[in-house]
Here is the input.
Amino acid sequence: MIPKPPFLKDLTPEREVAAFEELKPRLADVWDALMMRDEVPHTSVVVPSLTLDQSELTKIAGASFYEERLLFLLIRLRNPRARMVYVTSQPIHPIILEYYLQFLAGIPASHARSRLTLLCADDASPRSLTEKILERPRLIERIRAGIIDPSRAYLTVFNSTPHERKLAVLLGVPLNGCDPRLGDLGTKSGARKAIREAGVDVPYGFEDLRDAGDVAEVLAELRARRPEAGRAVLKLNDSFSGEGNALFSFPVSRSKGALRDALTRLEFSVPTETTEAYFEKYSRMGGVAEEFVEAPEKLSPSGQYRISPRGDVMAISTHDQILGGPSQQVFLGCRFPARDDYRIQIQEAGMRIGRVLAERGVVSRYGVDFLVHRREPSEDWKATALEINLRMGGTTHPYLALQFLTGGSLDPACGLYRSPSGQVKFYKATDNLYSERYRGLLPEDLVEILTLNKLHYSHGSESGVLFHLIGALSEFGKLGVTAIANSHEQADELYAHTLEVLDLETEYGR
Here is the structure.
């Protein structure tokens, strides 16, 4: 396919930004279709690129297969007049695609498949997918060919950077995501400012720090103002999943020398991290330092929300996050919905933050991570906002899985999700189901295992398991799972049963 203009070389920074601004109003024209409120023709271009710092990306085993997480967006093909162009770094295994299409209730899989265009860059390198696409003008032309009407199309991405802005302009479609020029609101420093402006509690601390010298200076001030503080947490501005966090323990001595020495003994979220490498990234990204909230009871929920092109803020979901790693700050999974006793509190706090973001011009998804804590069981939970994510996150695709399978919706009055039958739904999910014993399992093997052991989601019982990251299974022994049921207890039992089945089925020959 011969490429046609506009070409990457023709885009000056000024022309790119101007063209991007011209495309923005079109998103409002397709918003109702994007939200599945009507069944008008439109094209969704999905580029599930993790456009992140290269040093952060290489920490993720099987990172390119994370592009499969957005296959849950195939739900948009429930609209029989919708089309989708889905681009990946490597081809998607046919069985994986078949596995998802079979769940589109009410739509023949063949009909949905005829409206889906799959394209790939055939590039397994660890760079972001968007960068790979921008290097391939013929691939860009193939994406354009899959868009029937550019005025009724939009680009969906994992996170928005200048690379995604450039791709949107080359394709001639609006970006369903935050304008990259507003990206600072999603950094750890920018988030703290927006949270304070919204009147939501944030840990005492300091933002816009540049290097280890700044960190040492503010830690001394933090101790002076919070003499009872035993620990502080440092965060890289542009890290994700808690992997850019480091715990600092205040030394007994209050001297500057003792404090600087203690900075060489940080407790990192990633075991392979070193002090030297961490502060090199800190000097490059900047970051924050804040008091580590100590409380007898504390939990880590999050809220997910969406801002329309008109500035309307709506709640999507709440989750209790499952954390791990050496300092219990790495995101491993989640349970939906968040607990009854603080769910509405964090939902409303996140929407207040969203109204601040909307005033700045933010559009599409955002998430807020919270810490809820209390001194006594009889006390009400206090919600403290920790950070804002202006992108899809680890809780996005499990909720998409729930929508994909059930076709239900969230009741914002109570924060619960109801299927079309009225049944309240719950799930437990993870991206981090890993075992050396899973290595070598092919997609065909997984489908056989879940079929023989009746793990499939059943539309009759409205319960079952949906797997993702299936492409990473054979090489990395890694898998994602969402266990959906009619109560938290049932979801936990189904999740545990799934692990038991996988362990039993991979025991043979080991």
